[in-house]
Amino acid sequence: MTSAADRGADGERRNVLDAVGVVVLGACATWPLITAAARGGRPEGVLLAVLAVAAGCAAGRIGGAILPVAAPCAAALAGTALTVTVPHLAPGPHIDAPLGRVGATAAVLTLSAGAACCAAWASPVPSVRLALRLLAAGTAVTAAALDSITGCVACAAVLLCSLAAGRMPHRGAGIAGLAGAAALVTGLTWAVAANAVPDGLAASLEGQLTPHRVLLWRDAVHMVEGDPTLGVGPGRFGELSTTATQSLLSDGRPHSAPLQQAAEQGLPGLILLAAAFGWALHALWRTARPTPVALTAGAALTALAAIACVGNALSFTAVTAGAGLLAGMATARPLAEEVHEPATDADPRGDRLAQ
Q1: Distance between CA atoms of 21 and 328, rounded to whole angstroms?
Q2: DSSP alpha helix (H) spans, the chain
Q3: Counting Cβ atoms within 10 Å, is residue 260 exposed (0-12), middle (13-18) or buried (19+)?
Q4: Of all helices (H) and strands (E), which one includes residue 4?
Q5: Burial of 91 per CB tally in 10 Å (0-12, 13-18, 19+)
Q6: What is the pLDDT of residue 3?
Q7: How many CB atoms lie within 10 A of CB 110?
């Protein structure tokens, strides 16, 4: 049982963490307005994404507190249904690659797999856990059926990470590993865009990503070099990119969230994007929810970050709202005490309690 003093200290830390999140999201909404005023552009898309994350997180907190199993299960089913009934989630042009459609389809299914696995760990009933993990496996099958190889791989990775999370007594190492993985993918994306990788590796990656996508990335790097502080203005990549203007199928985006942030909002915009992701991981590290739930949600958000590095996933409101929803459910405090098997969760909060 948790003492009143422990609950009070945990509540105080939670309030501080929430205040930090408000500041980070507020800065993410304010900076594009500043860059738009200085360079021109349309900040509405960024503002909508920030609003979707905030709304999703709030809804996730409420749903996760009241229905810690049913809420993520419903979210997983809704996400899967959305990808089936609304193919690719947008009628606009797409940039295809051998990896599959690296966009909203892969991202929503990945978040759905994470939500199903979180629901499984929140349930004390073994048969329900098995059914929910089968639901998570079903999202990978759905991704394969929709020709999203990236989504299939990401969903399978989230499921495997979730199963492994049940054997981790401390979450700190897992959260650090997820942060390192996201940083590695971001760094590799930037290195490819800056033509800073060995020729053999560059040729292999370019074959997977398509030369057109790599050219878009290089246009983004050139824009960052032209104005690393303010960028070219939110929403202006498409009109200033030579590759985008010469393509009949371009949607005006570089298909990489970090590169788009840096190109349109300068390096401060990229730092704010990283800060938002870092805040989400830190919130999962500090949450009172069991370690498997925190690490499962972290794995899904990290997989989303990797998808966003090489695709346009964050351009869709369904994805940003889903990310906030998953983070909110994984950091909510259920109204009733959660019961867990001693062999799985001897100390469900792991090394967070030692802080």
Answers
A1: 12
A2: 4-39, 44-66, 70-85, 104-122, 126-145, 149-165, 172-193, 199-209, 211-226, 237-240, 242-245, 257-286, 291-309, 317-331
A3: buried
A4: helix 4-39
A5: exposed
A6: 52
A7: 37
Strands (E) across the chain are located at none
Per-residue confidence band for 252, with pLDDT thresholds at 50, 70 and 90: confident
- Contact 133/166 with Cβ under 8 angstroms? no
Compute the residue count for the chain. Answer: 355
Helices (H), 146-230: 149-165, 172-193, 199-209, 211-226
209: pLDDT confidence band, cut at 50, 70 and 90? confident
Quote the crossing angle between the two packed helices 104-122 and 126-145, to the nearest 10°: 170
3-state SS assignment for residue 117: helix
Other beta carbons less than 10 A from residue 148's beta carbon: 29
Q: For residue 21, what are its two tokens? A: 């999140």
Strands (E), 242-318: none
Residues near 352 by beta carbon (within 8 Å), at least 6 away in sequence: 171, 172, 285, 286, 287, 288
Taking the C-alpha atoms of residue 47 and residue 51, their distance in angstroms, rounded to an integer, is 6
Q: Is the dihedral of CA 274, 276, 281, 286 positive or negative?
A: positive
